[in-house]
Amino acid sequence: MDEVATKVIDILKKHMKEPRDDISLDTQLTDLKIESLDLAMIVFDIEDGFGIEIPYNANEEVEAFKTVGSVVDRVKSLIAAKQASAAKA
Amino acid sequence: MSQSKPGRRVVVTGLGVVTPIGTTVDEFWSGLKAGRSGVSALEGFPLDDLKILIAAQIKGFDPKQRLKHFKRDRIITLADRYSWFAATAADEAVRMSGLQLPEADPYRSACIIGSGAGGLVTFETAYRDLFIHNKRATHPLTLLRIIGSSAAAHVGIEFGVKGPTFATCSACSTATHAIGIARDYIRDNVVDVAIAGASESVINYGTMKAWQALHVLSPEGCFPFAKKRNGTVLAEGAGILVLESLEHAQARGATILAELCGYGMASDSQDMVKPTVEGPSVAMRDALADAGLKPEQIDYLNAHGTATMDNDINETKAIKEVFGDYAYKLPISSTKSMHGHPLGAGGGIEAVACIKAMHEGWVPPTIGLDEPGEGCDLDYIPNVGREKKVTYVMSNSFAFGGLNAVLVFGPPPA
Fold first, then answer.
1. What ipTM was predicted for this assembly?
2. Of the candidates B175, B254, B313, B326, which lies 20 to 30 Å from B151 by C-alpha distance?
3. Above 60 in pLDDT, residue B75?
4. Does A41 contact chain B (CB < 8 Å)?
């Protein structure tokens, strides 16, 4: 697993009541018993950790938050977008 | 307003406190017995240009240690400090009561835990982050930490309370109103059990500046009724009771600590800071009438006693108005001389002091009272507490805005 994935999983574990070590990219977030308040805190930590902003509304089902892998992909694309816009500037 | 009406009798079966002189009822009582002051040098945040440099802060409080056994409320340790204090005091009170919560019918229990101001420390931290440190966002829990009903909600979740759950807010009378309302709900058969009181934790730079601007804080200490008094001292903490209908407590064989036999409230409706004699007098009279007691039956009065110029003279006048000649014989003290002024939590902490006084046959002193102030000529139990048989007690709470609330406690019904 790459650096982004490892860091995302560490953040997930930090917010799980019973952290487990078998989290893979395919793991569903619902299987981790992550609820909406936990998700808000996870998003906050990811944003802080990677210096990005994740557009997210707790009232909507978000495709990007289905599995660990989809979160990691979303983070990577936001990092890439940020780097691209920084390069342009 | 007269509140006497028949209804169920209401008793106290649990007590819980978090104060600067003790974070359990036993420690708190030892602090009162020793006449210990909880006032110390202000610390925990940059003092910058503050002129008032003392407060009665709770030092070394570890929520992880005190609340680690909480099961239903998963985020209590991430809550604001004021919710930690409420949860800790409620936990102690519930344990003391021996109640197994949730109740079989959880809708027959209430959780009324007020706060004068809610999570002000969280508020300041969040605004510093946004406006000074240019952070992009506040912590996701900021809103939940700040709201003044979060302590009630946290405690209600942990103990599975599904009946009336909310906060009261009436500045320094907050806890007393919460306990009074809970009493009424039980008396009127809305619920059988209630966790009631208040919690406060507002000591930060902005709050100190705001109080400083009102010029009512002492730079030296909290000396109620003393000539040298020059203002109050901000404190923090929580005071919470478990109340039950008498039948409910008897049916489960609970140890009954006291009966909450009188509650009175009245508003001055006159001025935000200048109290009337009438408002506090009416509240005290109503509490006595509600309890069916004559003034002479009160053995100890825990005064609001804030050590401000206005309160102490005014409260003394109101006590004379209600108690007549007996006012001079009635032992009165302000325990704020020891635990400081915990604002909304005051009435809860002082209710615990009153009930302990009944049990221990000992009335706590007003410390720092070397020479009484002008217009302060009653028996304020100066400096040293005394042994005394205490059957009925009165606890006064008089708040900014002229919001007065008074409780009377008596012995467990035979």
1. 0.78
2. B254
3. yes
4. yes
